[in-house]
Amino acid sequence: MFRRRSRAVLLTLLLWCLTVGPAPAHAQDTRAVRYTLRFPAPHTHYVDVEAVVPVNAAATVELVMPVWTPGSYLVREYARHVEALTAEDPAGQPLRVQKTRKNRWRVDTAGAPSVTLRYRVYARQMQVQASWVDDRFAMLNGAATFMTVADGSMRPHEVRLELPAGWTDAVSGLPAVPAGSGTGGIAAGPVRTFQAPDFDTLVDSPILAGTPTVHAFEVAGVPYVLANEGEAGVWDGSRSARDVQRIVETQVAFWGGTPYERYAFLNVLAEAGGGLEHKASTLLLTSRWRTGTREAYLGWLGLVSHEFFHAWNVKQLRPVELGPFDYDAEVYTTGLWVSEGFTDYYGDLLVRRAGLSSREEYLRELSRQITTLQATPGRLVTPLASSSFDAWVKAYRPDENTDNTTISYYTKGAVVAFLLDARIRAATAGRRSLDDVMRTAYARYSGARGFTAEEFRRTASEVAGGDLGPWFAHAIDSTGELDYQPALEWFGLQFKEPDPPKSPPPGWLGVQTRLDDGRLLVREVPRGTPAFDAGVNAEDELLAIDDFRVRADQWEDRLRSYPPGRRITLLVSRRDVLRRIEVTLGEEPPRRWELAVRADATPEQAARLAAWLGETAARPTP
Ligand SMILES: [Zn+2]
């Protein structure tokens, strides 16, 4: 399989090489695979890849490309964008290539000491897990770009980019070597060369090339860059760099050290969205307009903070199942509530502790998470652990029934982190917190092996000074409702009382709608709503109530003119057949998930709230 060899095997091989001499043909080949990337017509969205692969006098060499990329748990079949693959020997003689699987190729070497592969990759997916090339810039993910030798992934991999005219730079979390020192050949423009010690690191190091504005800073002696591609005089580059530095300072202090030698924030301003974590970098997609409004900008800072927190939580401290990676197939884990949910919790919390958001803004964000959880019927169907396990078939494939059947491990994981944090603080009279769990788990389990679900829970119990097993069983393994009261009590918080009901309250159907070319369509029918019980379907076009035409822009107002309990007749078009559906309107359940500080909070509660939000002097690291 396409897996890294274990450290023990490598060490044995290394010792053998040192004591006996040159490795025989069957030993691990440590000679580098060298890639050159060219962009002869970037406006056509292609990157030309040339790879020089040393071979050990074997008759054939098997090449493989990942089907997924770490951090994004969906098989994406990157090989579908590869075309025009050829191979030749060092003398330029063509070699036979045979495709053996969807993502594998076999080259007959004819005894050549190395094979030069050439292929093109179509790159036009504006997603953090994919690649994009146009006339302005290239955003290249390793899994979507590079094929390597099957069972040879522990070799060094070197990437040399020949940039098109007008492009000024290429940035990556990988160490660069001096321009022009790559594989030789004549560069058409500026040349940048990066080195990765193994294929995992190459896959884990996206490259951004184009004309980025690069903001450099240092924290605790470690160099960082924020590379903004597409500032265009709109994005506030210096403010973003200053605030990213604050987030870095806060998180480095939180963990007490850094697991990388340099770190790159690759920020593509291309009216898209998303972020993906890597060991020494993160790739972020956003809108260049997001420094323009407070709320949008806070959202971006939360994204930065989330992805950066991953440099510790998941890139180093990870569920045991998440590595070594099998790039050929799905890798299942029940632990993404720690890797993603807890990261989501800390993402926003550490923006607050960095002083970049206000207490009210942070509580609003946490309230939004709680509201989303409590408004998702699927929380009563799928436990958090199962939601993680099924990420491969559910999380990245939402449909109209997703909210009815499952819950995001981001959302519920973040809310569970909040409740666990409060529980540990309460159990230890404020002396310990979830911060200590994360740091203790990091000290014990970061690195090659990872943690089992049981080990993480046990660590939390130790920090709390009592058995949290039943608490975890309820929060993670069951679909029981979460109990917010102990956390509210600890911090002196409450859920705001809902506004007094209008008299009489408006009727409630419960569908979510969307506009499609002027037509009002049902987007989702949540379980537990009058619409669900009456058989309204997703994609029904809403036309009339009680035979009175309702246009799209009138829908909400018209519905509000009927009281709860009223039986109405909906006229819908379902697959172009008109149907009448009888519905008894209900009353919308109150949304009572907005956190607020209690007016009668005690001084102790006020102090706990301030300590949690980093408003007082930092507590000593144990
Ligand atoms: Zn994440």
Would you give an account of this structure?
The chain is α+β, with helices and mostly antiparallel strands and 622 residues long. It has 17 helices and 29 strands. The strands form seven sheets. It has an eight-stranded mixed beta sheet. A five-stranded mixed beta sheet has the order 17-18-19-21-20, with helices on one face. Helix 4 packs parallel to helix 5, helix 6 runs antiparallel to helix 7 and helix 11 crosses helix 12. The longest helix has 19 residues. It is globular. The N terminus is likely disordered. Bound molecules: zinc ion. Zinc ion binds next to helix 6.
Considering the chains and any ligands shown, give keywords for the structure.
single chain, 622 residues, alpha+beta, eight-stranded mixed β-sheet, five-stranded mixed β-sheet, 17 helices, 29 strands, 24% strand, disordered N terminus, binds zinc ion
SSE layout:
Elements: H1 7-20, E1 33-38, E2 46-54, E3 60-64, E4 82-88, E5 94-95, E6 97-101, E7 104-108, E8 114-122, E9 132-133, E10 138-140, H2 142-145, E11 148-149, E12 157-162, E13 169-172, E14 176-177, E15 191-196, H3 199-203, E16 207-210, E17 213-219, E18 222-229, H4 237-255, E19 263-269, E20 274-277, E21 281-286, H5 294-309, H6 336-353, H7 359-374, H8 384-389, H9 402-405, H10 411-427, H11 434-445, H12 453-464, H13 469-477, H14 485-491, E22 493-495, E23 512-516, E24 519-524, H15 530-534, E25 541-545, E26 548-549, H16 555-560, E27 567-574, E28 577-584, E29 595-597, H17 603-612
Parallel strand pairs: 1-12, 18-19, 19-21
Antiparallel strand pairs: 1-2, 2-8, 3-7, 3-11, 4-5, 4-8, 6-7, 9-10, 10-16, 12-15, 13-16, 14-15, 17-18, 20-21, 22-29, 23-24, 25-26, 25-27, 27-28
Helix pairs in contact: 4-5, 5-6, 6-7, 6-10, 7-10, 10-14, 11-12
Bound molecules: zinc ion (ZN).
